[in-house]
Design a protein that fits this description.
The chain has 260 residues and is of the alpha/beta class. Helices cover 49% and strands 17% of the residues. It has 2 domains: 6-200, 2-enoyl-CoA Hydratase, Chain A, domain 1 (Alpha-Beta Complex); 204-250, Orthogonal Bundle (Lyase 2-enoyl-coa Hydratase, Chain  A, domain 2). The chain has helices spanning 30-44, 68-71, 76-94, 111-118, 145-153, 155-164, 170-175, 185-200, 204-217, 222-236, 240-250; strands at 6-11, 14-19, 51-56, 61-63, 100-104, 107-109, 121-125, 129-131, 167-169, 181-183. The strands form 2 sheets. The chain has a 6-stranded mixed β-sheet, with helices on both faces. It binds octanoyl-coenzyme A.
Length: 260
């Protein structure tokens, strides 16, 4: 499948989707969101893909937000539909079977910060800048930002970012837990690939269920979440990978996981 606003590559079981509208700092318009949705389906249905990296084209931006020129003339009805489209794409990323890494190589503002937050892990280059500047435009975050930001960094810091529209540095983003690691720009993608490969070597079903347990548990009370974790833990014991992983440990050899 070829895309107009995305670059899609796959190597050694790692897929890389590069959002590619550099003239608009990779802003998310409807066409790009629809293409991203198709690309995600392609990844989900490809069992040879063990991890996905999302990044932005050019050296300036990951994604500078939803496309302001497209939004400027929207009616409330159209705006709701656009927000629902963006939210659906973010949720698709969050629930993707494979692990996802955002390699944030510059501005991650508005919808760009929301896209990064939908990924499992965020790595940033030293020049990355994060923010939810929607209040400067007379709107609120609409692709999940009011919800995912508070779950990641707590309600107090989330409200400060959502109410001031301030941009923060990669260093500050790491300090508040919005990004996991910060690297020099040239190291960002190699580090993201290294991390993706490391995760890809582990038991695939266990990776998928770890992700599911964290994602679903966060919206449950602790008793339900623990019972859910126990159910998913039990499911692992119906896999070949559990037998292989534990046998390999006891036999003092490397495990060969097949994702079954
Ligand atoms: N949408 C459309 N075009 C954009 C966007 C954007 N979000 N961001 C940048 N561009 C365009 C600029 O218009 C400019 O185009 P042109 O060259 O044709 O004039 C080009 O990209 C380069 O941008 P700048 O010249 O502004 O570059 P600077 O280096 O001077 O500034 C900034 C970079 C600081 C990133 C600046 O471009 C900026 O502030 N961009 C907007 C950031 C922003 O406000 N993002 C939030 C958008 S709102 C949002 O994401 C809400 C999501 C939920 C939607 C809910 C649905 C209704």
């Amino acid at each position: 499948m070829s895309f107009e606003h995305l670059l899609f590559t796959k190597e050694d079981g790692i897929a890389v989707i590069t959002l590619n509208r550099p003239k608009a700092l990779n802003a998310l318009n409807k066409a790009l969101l629809l293409e991203l949705s198709s690309a995600l389906e392609q990844v989900e249905n490809d069992s040879s893909v063990h991890a996905l990296i999302l990044t932005g084209a050019g050296d300036k931006a990951f994604v500078a937000g939803a496309d302001i020129s497209e939004m400027r003339v929207m009616t409330p009805h159209e705006a709701r539909a656009f927000a629902r489209l963006g939210q659906a794409v973010m949720t698709k990323i969050e629930r993707l079977a494979q692990p996802t890494i955002a390699a944030v190589n510059g501005y991650a503002l508005g919808g760009g910060c929301e896209l990064a937050m939908a990924c499992d892990i965020r790595l940033a280059s030293v020049n990355a800048k994060f923010g939810q500047p929607e209040v400067n435009l007379g709107v609120i975050a609409g692709f999940g930002g009011t919800q995912r930001l508070q779950r990641l960094v707590g309600a107090g810091i989330a409200k400060e970012l959502l109410m001031t529209g301030d941009m923060i540095s990669a260093e500050r983003a790491a300090a508040i837990g919005l990004v996991n690691h910060v690297y020099e720009a040239a190291e960002l993608l190699p580090k993201a690939k290294e991390l993706a490969k490391k995760i890809a070597q582990k038991a695939p079903v266990a990776i998928k269920l770890s992700k599911q347990s964290v994602n679903e548990g966060v919206n449950m009370d602790i008793d339900r979440a623990l019972s859910h974790e126990a159910e998913l833990f039990a499911l692992c014991f119906a896999t070949e990978d559990q037998k292989e992983g534990m046998s390999a440990f006891l036999e003092k050899r490397s495990a060969r996981f097949e994702g079954k």
